[in-house]
Design brief:
173 residues, alpha+beta, 7-stranded mixed β-sheet, 4 helices
Length: 173
């Protein structure tokens, strides 16, 4: 298993992985395709096993108004054949040590029981526009002292958000 920064050559394999990892949902693959097509800054890595992309993680900008205030972790995906084997955890730990990520405030909308293992904690501020009451909104290195609604890249529009939260590795926002 090898972890690499995503290249242009990886992109079609990433989109295919996202469709396999989230059966019945095209949201995650479409989101990442749009982020790439629109030239958004995405910090992203893949896990390669026998020349196949078996896991993917991405971080995009989080906003307080027009200012970047951190990064959103979204999505984290593992190929079905490799789930529950620690691949996603290994990839996420690797990503959290990378220069672009390691000292920034991070936000994730996902399963608290899963993400707390990596240092994410419940987050009251800022407010997540996709999670009423911030029940599944977590952060790391977050020093927000005032209440605001955290912004996402336009590709994360409310219209594109699926109607329910997915499982721990199916975080879409």
């Amino acid at each position: 298993m090898k972890i690499q920064t995503v290249t242009m050559e990886h992109r079609p394999k990433v989109y295919a992985l996202l469709r396999r990892a989230f059966p019945g949902s095209d949201h995650e693959a479409t989101l990442v395709e749009k982020l790439h097509a629109h030239g958004r800054t995405v910090h992203e890595w893949v896990c390669i096993h026998t020349n196949k992309v078996i896991a993917y993680v991405a971080f995009t900008s989080a906003y307080h108004g027009n200012e970047i205030c951190g990064l959103h972790l979204a999505p984290l995906a593992v190929a079905p054949d490799f789930q529950k084997q620690g691949v996603g955890s290994e990839l996420l730990r690797f990503a959290l040590r990378q220069e672009a990520v390691k000292s920034r405030p991070l936000f994730v909308l996902g399963e608290p029981g899963y993400y707390s293992r990596f240092g994410f904690e419940p987050c009251n501020m800022p407010i997540c526009p996709f999670d009423t009451g911030n029940a599944h909104f977590l952060s790391m290195r977050n020093n927000a002292a005032t209440s605001f609604v955290v912004g996402y890249e336009p590709e994360f529009s409310v219209a594109a958000v699926p109607p329910r939260l997915h499982g721990k590795k199916r975080r879409t926002r």
